[in-house]
Amino acid sequence: MAVSSQVPQGAEHGSAPVFFLSYARHHRAPEDKSGTAEDPDRWTLRFFDDLTFEVAELTTLPRHARPGFMDRELRVGQEWPRRISEALAACRVFVPLYTPRYFTSLSCASEWYLFQARQSAHELTSGSRSEAIIPVLWLPMPDTELPAAAQALQFDHHTLGEAYARLGFLQLIRLARFKDEYQLAIHALAREVVRVALSSAPQASLPVDFTAVRSRFENAEGLFEAAGDLVRHVGGRTPLSLPGRRPLALPPGRPMAELLAGPSESSSPSPHDSADDAVTAYIRAVQGKLAEWFASRPHQIASADFDDFYFREVHPAAKAALLRHLTPHAPDGRSARPPRLRSLPTADRPPGGAPDVP
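== TIR domain-containing protein ==
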């Protein structure tokens, strides 16, 4: 997905949505020709309106701006695919409503895939990770029933309340006795949406017709699998751009063990080894060590265990690989005098100098 350097038209005026609500639509019964039956998506509509109100209250958007986007109009003509595609290209946060039907919907899978493609493109072009998908339990679902793309998300549903984590939003909104729990949960969700929108939103992208994406897959499972592939394979592809230099390309073909081991005993480092070779060795060593961590605990990098592992294993190995590719050179001219560990006698101290610094 191409990432635009310009925000889509209207976003700078607050018209681009803060969040995109992705949900599995219900269809009216075929016998309801008059449309007088209750809207099967009425609870979803109320949830969307409540979340939109809470987000608006937590931001400084203009009064006319609608911070949320929901595909709530009739899908007639060619207007609705364009509006959905533009919203997916500009929204800052993606909010999927988890239900068993959601993960069998090709439209929902297409929306998820396009937003994940934006996040992956953001990581590849900026080097920073975007995590702007906030999952919502409309109905409780065990992790084992989620596709890999959803299992990769790290979100603690208990932060929105124990009743929500146990029952999901549908029951909170339907049952009057959970009114207080619903209000607290919807407010906590709005605060998380605003936090992510301000800190982890991906760059805006060029709109992509999500109907064209959908037409390339036979079912939702294939599209969610493709979204999971984006998550798994984007890591490590970001080129390292050094100031004033071309992006550093890691040399292909050399075994990881050879790069980690450095030059053999029979060879000595050349004084003409480039800084690029040294940086390449450093990066390769980091990649090799971090692979040990990510193979077992890919989402626990913000932990004390990871910090201990990094400074105990990763940094020393990377530093050693870097030094093996550099030849130390004595500085030209007279060497600077090393600092003294003892203070000079009072008579020898330079006037105005610090007592322990020559």
